[in-house]
Design goal:
This protein has eleven helices and no strands. It is mainly α and 166 residues long. Helix 4 runs antiparallel to helix 5. The longest helix has 26 residues.
């Protein structure tokens, strides 16, 4: 869709692209980009060096996202995360508030991205995703997923193409 917009093709070509197909394509691009970021992070090294290289406004959120992504299976808490960054939990809360967010929102965002990746790329079911993300049971995961996305996991899986990788 982006390619069509950049090439300046006629509007009738854009009309042929259904909204559903466009959403699925963008979801696959998003998931692929998410996986690419994780691989790229593994190649480049530590969070501290990456945080220094980023702009000050984005360094905390970027480093926090990468840290939470690396540790999503361990269900990192505010205290553990603050300790990793060498600051107090209160300071982490204040800095996140200055960015217009809070710790639980950032953790939920990472969990959402990982869940989407597991559904699309690995074909996981609710039980497997719940276990991967550290939820006690699938019912708690389903409630959280619906809160994060507005969709139930089953309705999302039904709208996705078959898994990209088995």
């Amino acid at each position: 869709l982006r390619r069509l917009l950049k090439t300046g093709r006629q509007p009738h070509v854009l009309q042929q692209v259904t909204v559903e197909r466009a959403e699925q394509a963008l979801a696959r691009l998003f998931i692929a980009g998410l996986a690419g970021k994780a691989v790229e992070h593994g190649r480049r090294g530590g969070l501290a060096r990456q945080a220094r290289d980023e702009e000050p406004r984005q360094s905390l959120l970027g480093a926090l996202y990468r840290y939470l992504l690396e540790h999503v299976r361990l269900a990192p808490g505010l205290e553990q995360t603050a300790q990793h960054f060498g600051i107090s939990p209160a300071t982490l809360k204040r800095r996140l508030l200055a960015h217009g967010t809070h710790f639980q929102a950032e953790l939920d965002q990472v969990r959402t991205h990982v869940a989407l990746q597991l559904y699309q790329c690995r074909g996981f079911d609710n039980e497997q995703v719940a276990r991967y993300l550290g939820f006690n049971d699938a019912a708690n995961f389903r409630r959280s997923f619906k809160r994060w996305t507005g969709l139930t996991p089953s309705s999302l899986r039904d709208s996705l193409d078959p898994p990209l990788m088995a």
